[in-house]
Structures are given as C-alpha cells and as structure tokens.
TrEMBL record:
<feature type="domain" description="Nucleolar protein 11 N-terminal">
    <location>
        <begin position="1"/>
        <end position="323"/>
    </location>
</feature>
<dbReference type="GO" id="GO:0003723">
    <property type="term" value="F:RNA binding"/>
</dbReference>
<dbReference type="Pfam" id="PF08168">
    <property type="entry name" value="NOL11_N"/>
</dbReference>
<protein>
    <submittedName>
        <fullName>Nucleolar protein 11</fullName>
    </submittedName>
</protein>
<dbReference type="InterPro" id="IPR012584">
    <property type="entry name" value="NOL11_N"/>
</dbReference>
<dbReference type="GO" id="GO:0030490">
    <property type="term" value="P:maturation of SSU-rRNA"/>
</dbReference>
<dbReference type="InterPro" id="IPR042859">
    <property type="entry name" value="NOL11"/>
</dbReference>
<dbReference type="GO" id="GO:0005730">
    <property type="term" value="C:nucleolus"/>
</dbReference>
Length: 536
C-alpha cells in the first residue's frame, strides 16, 4: 500500500500573500521556491538546505520554472516580460527582458516537453517561438480565446494518450469552474472544454490523472468521487468510483496526482479539528494512507516533486514524503470506514473480553491499523499486560508507532519485549523519527541489551536485526559521545554479538566452497591430518 511519511516544515513564509509558488528544479530532489515576488530559493528536500538563491528588484508575477530543453531558468515579470538565466548567475539585476504585447499567466514545462507560454487570454504557444516574435502576438482564431468573464486559476501540462495538452482551470465571477484542454501541437489534438457543474451539488476538488489511461477526477459535496475518461467521450461527471468519508467534503479540498495509480487528497477532518492528507488508489478510490494535520487551511496549495508532496499550510511550506507500493485488495477492506472512536472504552478488560472486542471490530470491517488505535491506547494507559498479550494474539498487522510504544512499555517485561521484537517493522524515515521521540536513551539501552541476547541465540529472526539497526541509527550520536559505563558496556556487547555473526558467515562461506568441491567429486588440498598412532 501507499504510505505517507512524517511531514516536516521546509521554510517559513514571511508574507503568505507575497508567496508565488513552487516548481521542479534541474536537479532531482530539489525544488524552486519563488518565496516572494522578488526572492527565489532552490531547496534540496532531503536535507532542507538551500542550494542557491536569487533576488531581483523587478516583481515576479508567476513561479520561476526550469526548462530542461534549453537548460535555463525563466521568470515572468510584471505579467508582460520574460527573462532567462543560467544556474551559475549570481545577480538577476542586469538581466535583459523580452516584453510581450499580451499579458502572460505562466510558463509550464516538464522533463520531456519544452517550455510553453500561457497567456491570460487562454492562448498557448511554445516559449522559444514567442521569444523570437514577441512584438507580434500569435495569430489565433476567436474560438482560441477565453471568454472575457473567465479567469485562469491554474495551468499545467498533461499527457492524454501520448498527446500533450495544457489544462487550463478557469473560474467565472458566478463561481463556475471550467476545464479547458488546449493541445500543445495544434495538429495532434483538438481544443475542448467542459463545465464542472453537477445539479444540486458543489464541486469540492478535482484533478486530471494523465498517462496511458487519462481521467478527470471530481469530488462533490455529497461525497461522491467520479472518474471521467479523457479525451471526453462519456457524459459528465463520468463513472462513480467511491464515496469519500475520510474528509469533510463541505469544505474546500485539493486533489493532486501521485504516479499512475494514486492521487492525494487534502481536506478538513470530519467531526474534528485539523485536516487529513490522504493517498487514494485510482482503481478503487479508497484511502491507502492518511496523515493528520493539526490545522486545516482552506486555501491550501500543493505540488509534487519526485516522492514528495509540497504544500502551503498556514505560515509554512510543508513537505510530506510518500511511498507508492502495489496495493493488495485484502488490505483495503474496511479502510474507508471512519476511524474508531478512541474515547470509547472496551467494556470488558479481561483477556476474553478484549479478544471478543477485536473479533467484533474485524467482523464490522475495520482494518487492523484502526483497531490498534482503539485497543492499544486503552491497554497501555491501564497498564494491562495480559490485555496486550491478548491483543497481540489477535492482531497481526501492527503499525510501527504502536510497536515502538509497546516496546517502550515492555522494557521491564522481558518476555513481552521479546515477543514484540519479533514483530516486523517497516523501518522508514518516519519510524526513526518516532523512535527518537518515544524512546529515551535509557529505554533504548534496555532494548539493545535484549536484542543482543536474542542475537546470541541459535534461531535469529530478521526482525531482531531490523530492531538492532533501528536502535543504533536513532541513538548513534548519543552512544558515540557518551562516556557512561552502561552505554559503553551495552554497545560493546552488541558489537561482539555482531562480530560473532560475521565470523560465522565467513565460516559458512568457506564451508559452502568445501561442499561444492565434494559435489563435483573433488577433494580439497587442505585435508585435515590423520593420526598415525595405532591403538591395536
């Protein structure tokens, strides 16, 4: 299944109203942040550090973009001037600018499509062509111009069955939303538009999932999620794929494509404060992963950069890394049900009562992740060790956040701790963050001691090695810099256990070579000496 990792703040926004936008950079894993109308910063998402920055006295009116075809950065100034520069340029003060007759909305580009100029009147044209003919606007027909009452809210490149289009999302003063599909090459496609209206219901969010089987996804105020094949062949809004209950559909939301088979949905949390960031599968329209946000922002804007979601939340630019895996249908059972009420109490805290409650929740269709949220929070608060063991008997898919809390709770109960340490971890970046937050060094040392003992046993499970790596990675600096005798002793014991395993593997490798010789009917030259003593 897909998974959202722990979100983090990339940078603060000094003035949100002056923030312009985000676009992909020339380097993989970097983004161009047009932080204000005269400040551009390149960030590396892996370490949240600035790669470089530029400033200008002229006012930018659209996000700065990088064009892979020309290997240049482009900026739009005052809506009618375009400048370009290379990565090594330090100051933008002396750049030459090309002035245009028509007002410009933005420039769009991708890895395999040269930059395209999007005018505010709805006309699009290759940037390279218009830079050479800026004083003479492109010759267009009346049907290529937007009606005066429509204003472009967003423009993006999409690929529909191998034909490249610019998707223009426009809005009227009456609140009507319209999607225009404009082919980049007029000879390969036909311009079309569709009004995103559905009688009696309000549009909550929408996006295009492009690729080999492109579709228009729309979410409405009644919670219905529709999919319409593109180019448009069926009646709007298309096929109903699911009912969305993971967010409050009566508040504005945002949908964005993630790969060929997934999309992400941001919206207000239902029946509570805050918001949810949810990854849904395209095939079933069901949530596969969700992350709770403390604050809901009804003006949220989102972008994607490789395996990262970048969004504006409040006064910060926030990054939420994600992973996309092949989805198993069995793991989606019950996932669209609202989360269990963690404030309700399990009536019977006996082993039989807990077992019965878990079985009942499974029969109601709740997935085990939600059952863990309901059961373990109460059991740990009540310090019910027997109940924890009963829950472990009946739940197999336990999220890392609960494994870590259970391991911390069981630090003084070696039997329970050994059982927990044999459960599989996903071990991603968010897991390391949870360990640093939940496990103090003293608790980590206790866990390392038990892990070391388990490594010395004959039957070593892979999960034990995963725990050893996780604990060492998260407390590496503390162990390295500490002069405490206990820390030194525990780490030395772990080192010795690992060394013993490495020596064993070397021995096994040499034995394997010997076995291969025997299989081929050969005898090695290093035969052991035979005693010549006779005992007759």
């Amino acid at each position: 299944m897909a998974k959202i990792l722990a979100p983090y703040a990339l940078c603060p926004l000094a003035e949100r109203k002056r923030f312009v936008g985000v676009s992909p950079d020339s380097e993989s894993g970097c983004v161009i942040v047009t932080l204000a109308r005269n400040i551009i910063i390149r960030y590396r998402l892996s370490n949240q550090k600035q790669v470089s920055s530029w400033s200008t006295k002229a006012m930018l009116s659209a996000p700065v973009i990088y064009d892979h075809a020309s290997k240049l950065y482009y900026g739009i100034f005052n809506s009618d001037e375009v400048s370009s520069w290379e990565e090594h340029v330090v100051s933008l003060g002396k750049l030459s600018k090309t002035k245009f007759i028509w007002l410009i909305h933005s420039i769009v580009s991708s890895d395999d499509i040269p930059a395209v100029l999007v005018y505010q009147n709805g006309v699009i044209s290759p940037l390279k062509t218009d830079l050479a003919n800026s004083k003479a606007p492109p010759e267009v027909k009346d049907d290529q111009l937007l009606p005066p009452e429509e204003n472009i809210k967003e423009a993006r490149l999409v690929s529909l069955a191998s034909v490249h289009y610019v998707a223009l999302y426009t809005a009227t003063e009456a609140g009507e939303t319209i999607l225009h599909l404009v082919p980049v090459d007029q000879d390969r496609g036909t311009r079309s538009f569709i009004k995103l209206n559905r009688d009696g219901f309000k549009l909550t969010a929408f996006t295009i999932l492009d690729g080999d089987s492109p579709v228009l996804i729309t979410l409405w105020s009644d919670g219905k999620l529709f999919s319409l094949s593109l180019p448009i062949k069926d009646l709007f809004p298309g096929k109903l794929i699911s009912m969305v209950s993971c967010i409050d559909v009566n508040h504005p939301a945002v949908i964005l494509q993630l790969g060929q088979e997934h999309f992400v949905l941001y919206g207000a949390a239902p029946n509570s404060e805050g918001a949810y960031l949810v990854i849904l599968g395209r095939q079933f329209g069901l949530p596969e992963s969700r992350a709770k946000m403390k604050v809901y922002d009804n003006e949220c804007r989102m972008w994607t950069c490789r395996n990262n979601i970048v969004m504006v939340l409040g006064g910060h630019l926030v990054v939420a890394p994600f992973r996309l895996n092949t989805v198993k249908l069995a793991s989606l059972i019950g996932v669209d049900k609202t989360a269990l009420n963690t404030n309700s109490s399990i009536m019977d805290n006996t082993v039989e009562g807990i077992t019965s409650s878990i079985i009942q929740m499974k029969e109601e269709g709740h997935i085990e992740h939600f059952i863990c949220d309901s059961v373990f929070s109460e059991l740990l608060e009540a310090k019910n060790t027997e109940g924890v063991n009963a829950a472990l008997d009946n739940i197999s898919d336990i999220p890392d956040k609960w494994l870590i809390q259970l391991a911390n709770y069981a630090a003084e109960d070696e039997g329970l701790l050994r059982r927990i340490l044999k459960l599989p971890l996903s071990g991603d970046a968010s897991t390391q963050t949870l360990v640093r937050q939940k496990l103090m060094l003293s608790s980590a040392l206790k866990l390392i001691s038990v892990v070391t003992e388990m490594l010395k046993e004959d039957d070593v499970d892979k999960c034990i090695l995963d725990w050893a790596c996780l604990l060492c990675d998260t407390h590496y600096l503390q162990c390295l810099l500490s002069k405490d005798d206990q820390v030194i002793s525990v780490t030395r014991d772990l080192h010795d256990a690992v060394e013993e395993h490495i020596e064993s593997m070397v021995t096994y490798r040499s034995l394997l070579a010997e076995i291969n010789y025997f299989k081929r009917g050969k005898v090695t030259s290093n035969t052991p000496p035979v005693s010549s003593h006779s005992y007759v």
